[in-house]
Specification:
The protein has helices at about 1-15, 20-30, 40-50, 50-85, 90-145, 165-170, 185-195, and strands spanning about 35-40, 150. By secondary structure, it is mostly helical. It has a single domain (about 30-195), classed as 2-Layer Sandwich (Protein Binding, DinI Protein, Chain A).
Length: about 230
């Protein structure tokens, strides 16, 4: 009986505390006043990322140098091929030169395949490194602005006469967006401003590092990019 009286005595107090619970939770939740969903044009980021373009240009020059190096080997092979026509089929000279051509062809193919594999791996590392930097920058931006979700989209105009592009447009995830949630120009500005990385800037080797606040003036979200 006393227990029932105690519960009854606490009931008015509980009635007063219950309305305060959501208020307390709301006060604890961070509020930044901006949109909680944003979009990012990753294709546009890569096309305009200064350091990515520099690294890609360096790799293209390496590919051209490798091709020039192989060019002389191919010319030498062609000369031997022409020389083979001077000998009669089945003669010792013909068989010896034929074996030499087969050996040269195998070496050239092996060299080309190795270089191709190395360049593909190098290209993949460049893309992955820059992508990790983009992700780290986006995470820092979201942590400091209260954005909870970032969706990838492509803002490039489509060619209506290209069936593949039309199909891609019909299957895209983002149907409509307000320019105010497009953080592409903000992220691109931050990435390009860190060409000389200061201490603490995040990178692929240490993705847990925090990106320091950008002290430069950044363009507003939704700034027209085209």
């Amino acid at each position: 009986m006393k227990r029932l009286n105690l519960v009854a005595a606490l009931a008015p107090l509980a009635a007063l505390l219950l309305p305060l619970a959501p208020l307390a939770l709301a006060q604890q939740a961070p509020h930044h006043g901006g949109p909680v969903v944003a979009i990012l044009d990753l294709t546009y980021i890569f096309k305009n990322h200064t350091r990515f373009q520099q690294m890609s240009g360096d790799m293209r020059r390496e590919v051209e140098a490798a091709e020039n190096s192989l060019k002389s080997d191919r010319e030498s092979y062609q000369q031997l091929t022409q020389k083979l026509e001077q000998y009669k089929r089945g003669t010792p000279e013909y068989r010896a030169l034929e074996e030499e051509l087969a050996k040269r062809a195998a070496e050239l193919n092996l060299q080309v395949n190795i270089q191709k594999k190395n360049f593909l791996e190098q290209e993949a590392k460049i893309y992955y490194t820059v992508y990790q930097e983009v992700i780290d920058c986006v995470k820092y931006h979201c942590d400091t602005t209260g954005v909870s979700l970032v969706l990838r989209f492509n803002g490039d105009p489509i060619d209506r006469n290209d069936p593949q592009e039309v199909l891609k447009e019909l299957n895209k995830s983002v149907i409509y967006y307000n320019r105010s949630i497009d953080i592409t120009p903000v992220i691109l500005e931050k990435l390009n401003s860190y060409q000389q990385k200061p201490a603490g800037y995040s990178n692929a080797a240490n993705p847990n590092q925090q990106v320091p606040p950008n002290q430069q003036q950044l363009p507003p979200q939704g700034l027209p990019r085209r």
